[in-house]
């Protein structure tokens, strides 16, 4: 049985839709919002709820662990969820991490992923890490009402990836990890999941101008300007830092590496930015 967390969300729903017919356990906070998938049972548990997770994970062999919504205690929630999975007898954890996950990553949220990866490794459980680049909608979603993308991304490049491509990889990896699936070359692997090319935000603005038929421009900010412009939202400091450093990570070049993993694993070329925007 494959257990999947986060199936009420944008990525998780795409993953479970690709696993129809496979014995599945959807582990959700609100069963009333669980997607309807043939072959799936539903169990209620939030990350970090040990007893509920033990119950929800009963009989689960392979767990698709989606990273939680960003919060100040996200790493603790991830660690507690991993511990519950190990205690429940889960053999493999497939975890959605982030490219360049490291304790000193420019993108502060990527540090959470490194700490989670390290914890998973420390338990000795089998793992596969899917290190996603930024999702493609990060770019189009960052356009303000005045048609301007503002952020401290300099002229750096980002090899953003679509959620559909990440979901296709995840479903392939999960199927191959199931008992009886034959060879499983994904055990112990870490994959960078990216789009087909890395682009600057100026290039993205040009694509959006063309496809949307209205002027979109990119206006680079300094780090100081970026923090100040987001002060008025009233968000906690850790969250503002995450927003700002997602752009700073583009400037640093840490998100520019293009990988062949999507094509290698699924046999299909990943979706590019323009193709993605035209399909919306
Ligand atoms: N690479 C990127 O650009 C990027 C962008 C955004 C997010 N992410 C990360 O990737 C993850 C998946 O992305 P997404 O687009 O699918 O996000 P999403 O649509 O917000 O979905 C998040 C899913 O995780 C569940 N979840 C979050 N916190 C949880 C908790 N504490 N306990 C149990 N379930 C929890 C949510 O459940 P509910 O429905 O109950 O809330 C939802 O099903 C995100 O959670 C985030 O960590 C990456």
TrEMBL record:
One protein family per Pfam? NAD_binding_10
Q: Which InterPro entries match?
A: NAD(P)-bd_dom, NAD(P)-bd_dom_sf, NmrA-type_oxidoreductase
Residue ranges occupied by any NAD(P)-binding domain in the UniProt entry: 6-175
Q: What lineage, starting at the top, does this entry show?
A: Bacteria, Bacillati, Actinomycetota, Actinomycetes, Propionibacteriales
Would you tell me the protein name for this molecule? Uncharacterized protein YbjT (DUF2867 family)
The protein's organism comes out as: Kribbella rubisoli
Origin superkingdom:
Bacteria
């Amino acid at each position: 049985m494959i257990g999947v967390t986060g199936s009420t969300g944008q990525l998780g729903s795409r993953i479970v839709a690709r696993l129809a017919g496979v014995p599945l356990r959807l582990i959700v906070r609100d069963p009333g919002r669980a997607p309807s998938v043939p072959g799936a049972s539903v169990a209620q548990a939030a990350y970090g709820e040990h007893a509920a997770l033990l119950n929800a994970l009963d009989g689960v062999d392979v767990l698709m662990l989606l990273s939680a919504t960003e919060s100040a205690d996200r790493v603790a929630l991830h660690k507690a969820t991993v511990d519950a999975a190990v205690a429940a007898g889960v053999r493999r954890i497939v975890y959605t991490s982030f490219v360049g996950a490291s304790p000193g990553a420019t993108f502060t949220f990527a540090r959470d992923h490194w700490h989670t990866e390290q914890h998973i490794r420390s338990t000795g459980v089998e793992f596969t890490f899917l290190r996603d680049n930024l999702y493609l909608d990060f770019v189009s979603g960052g356009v303000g009402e005045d048609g301007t993308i503002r952020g401290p991304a300099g002229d750096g490049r980002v090899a953003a990836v679509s959620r559909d491509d990440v979901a296709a990889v995840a479903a392939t990896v999960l199927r191959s990890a199931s008992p009886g699936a034959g060879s499983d070359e994904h055990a112990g692997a870490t994959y960078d999941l990216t789009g087909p090319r890395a682009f600057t935000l100026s290039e993205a603005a040009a694509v959006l101008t063309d496809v949307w038929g209205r002027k979109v421009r990119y206006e680079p900010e300094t780090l100081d300007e970026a923090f100040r412009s987001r002060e008025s939202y009233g968000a906690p400091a850790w969250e503002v830092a995450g927003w700002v450093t997602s752009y700073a990570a583009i400037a640093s070049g840490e998100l520019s590496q293009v990988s062949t993993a999507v094509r290698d694993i699924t046999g299909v070329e990943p979706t590019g930015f323009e193709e993605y925007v035209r399909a919306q």
